[in-house]
Amino acid sequence: MIRLDDATLTYPDGAGRITAVDHVSLTGKPGVVTGITGPSGSGKSSILALAATLIRPDSGHVWIGDVDAAKISRREATDLRRDRIGIVFQQSNLIASLTAREQVEVMGELGGHDERARRRLVRSHVEELLDSVGLAGQGGKRPAQLSGGQRQRVAIARALAHEPEVLLIDEPTSALDQERGAEIMELIHRLTHERNTSTLLVTHDLVHRKSLDELLTVVDGKITEHTTQHGASGASAAAAPSAS
After folding, report:
1. CATH match for 2-91+165-239 among 3.30.428.10, 3.40.30.10, 3.40.50.300, 3.40.50.450
2. pLDDT greater than 80 at residue 206
3. What is the Cα–Cα distance from 91 to 184, expressed in whole angstroms?
4. Can you tell me the distance from the alpha carbon of 27 to that of 62, in angstroms, rounded to the nearest whole number?
5. pTM for the whole thing?
């Protein structure tokens, strides 16, 4: 599970500071895809960066399971990302010289407290991961030989290689047409349920809304609306997201 508790983030702005995330509380529950949407500059990406432990909030808490990432060192945050968080960026960011299989296998080479165990874990289920994202038999292809949708599938498999409990995804359909985008969103939804990951997904494209279990709307750094597939909505729902 991932939980932001009253998190605030500011950036320098001339002589003062600008608030990017304003007392945000949210919970990403296991097996649930929680979408985050809002206008450009609303704070969506800053929320995702906090969740990814890439930056630390000015105040509040960022819980990854039982660890408060707002209170740990940079090195400990790096270890936390490597071991418990999977990240899919807006662009697939694949390495041009590596095959799809090698893109996933490289996740076993990131070191850590038990590097050998990590390497064994990743290599033991590379083919299963590629199959799960619809790329069975495509493991020997390099990025230039894959379509945009296939490259994004490789990126998803790579993010899941170390079996993270939290999956963070930034605009996964932005470079895809509507059909391919729908396929990627349905894939994320299925894998989240099958693997019981807590998935936060930033998106501006609500045509794929049916693939989200919950949707948070962010305006000026604040969550203004929280809707679910069951139709419950309202800012009050977002105010107490820790209830499961």
Report:
1. 3.40.50.300
2. yes
3. 13
4. 10
5. 0.87
